Automatic annotation (TrEMBL):
<protein>
    <submittedName>
        <fullName>Glucose 1-dehydrogenase</fullName>
        <ecNumber>1.1.1.47</ecNumber>
    </submittedName>
</protein>
<feature type="domain" description="Ketoreductase">
    <location>
        <begin position="10"/>
        <end position="195"/>
    </location>
</feature>
<keyword id="KW-0520">NAD</keyword>
<dbReference type="InterPro" id="IPR020904">
    <property type="entry name" value="Sc_DH/Rdtase_CS"/>
</dbReference>
<dbReference type="InterPro" id="IPR057326">
    <property type="entry name" value="KR_dom"/>
</dbReference>
<dbReference type="InterPro" id="IPR036291">
    <property type="entry name" value="NAD(P)-bd_dom_sf"/>
</dbReference>
<dbReference type="Pfam" id="PF13561">
    <property type="entry name" value="adh_short_C2"/>
</dbReference>
<dbReference type="GO" id="GO:0047936">
    <property type="term" value="F:glucose 1-dehydrogenase [NAD(P)+] activity"/>
</dbReference>
<comment type="similarity">
    <text>Belongs to the short-chain dehydrogenases/reductases (SDR) family.</text>
</comment>
<keyword id="KW-0560">Oxidoreductase</keyword>
<dbReference type="InterPro" id="IPR002347">
    <property type="entry name" value="SDR_fam"/>
</dbReference>
Length: 251
């Protein structure tokens, strides 16, 4: 069955959209009929994604936004609603990796940096997205956690802590808004071929491949496929779920 137009008339809001999973997901939403607001820390970084969204047939709004700053997030949601009239789907994907270090060697500045962007940023986005969805009578939120949200990672305590917390935040929000026609779920990617993975491995992607039971890295488009399923009517009875798309890494 074709799903080519399943997001016609819908508005999607995608953070961390300049590259990797966010970019692939924004393009996928556009290809299936959505109008898309794309966010990242600089508008210049979004130019390639914006052009790709247009090429896929979508109308796009590019917004420079640091998701850890509430006033910028609130303004971004307002701009999206002003431009497109509503907000149907929010994919809270912005995040950063930590510098590898055991717990006792993690600086407080580094800890705060990771939690501010990965966890606080997700909360701040949800706060304003959900308020808009309540006003309009429904919507869907998908948060990016990680396989590191359900297992420990040596040298990655700050990142793992932020991604574990996103799962708890997701479950709680799903209960808060279950009777408001709003679904809230989390996607848990494994080792995906993205610029973040390249930075984390120092360019030695074989390290990550060796951790994958399936023997390869995932592609950003494979995560996008799962996000779109969770955002569409096919996932209408799914809320509060944490869905792993990781090649078996977290088993």
């Amino acid at each position: 069955m074709s799903h080519a137009h399943r997001f016609n008339g819908k508005v999607a809001f995608v953070t961390g959209a300049a590259s990797g999973i966010g970019r692939a997901t924004a393009i996928a939403f556009a290809a299936e009929g959505a109008r898309v607001a794309i966010l990242d820390r600089s508008e210049a970084a979004l130019r390639d994604t914006a052009e790709a969204v247009r090429t896929a047939g979508g109308e796009v709004l590019a917004i420079a936004c640091d998701v850890s700053k509430p006033e910028l997030v609130e303004a971004a949601v307002a701009r999206t609603v002003e431009r497109f009239g509503r907000l149907d789907i929010a994919f809270n994907n912005a995040g950063v990796e930590n510098k590898v270090a055991p717990v006792a060697e993690i600086g407080l500045d580094e800890w705060d940096r990771i939690l501010d962007i990965n966890l606080r940023g997700t909360f701040v986005c949800m706060k304003h997205e959900l308020a808009q969805m309540v006003r309009q009578g429904g919507g869907v939120v998908v948060n990016t956690s990680s396989g590191a949200g359900v297992r420990g990672v040596a040298g990655g305590a700050a990142y793992a802590a932020s991604k574990h917390a996103i799962i708890g935040l997701t479950k709680s929000a799903a209960l808060d808004y279950a009777r408001s026609n709003i679904r809230v779920n989390a996607i848990l990617p494994g080792n995906i071929e993205t610029p973040m993975m390249d930075r984390f491995t120092g360019g030695d992607l074989q390290k990550a491949i060796d951790l994958e039971p399936v023997g390869r890295l995932g592609r950003p488009e494979e995560i996008a496929d799962a996000v779109l399923w969770m955002s569409a009517d096919l996932g209408a009875f799914v809320t509060g779920a944490s869905i792993s798309v990781d090649g078996g890494w977290s088993l």
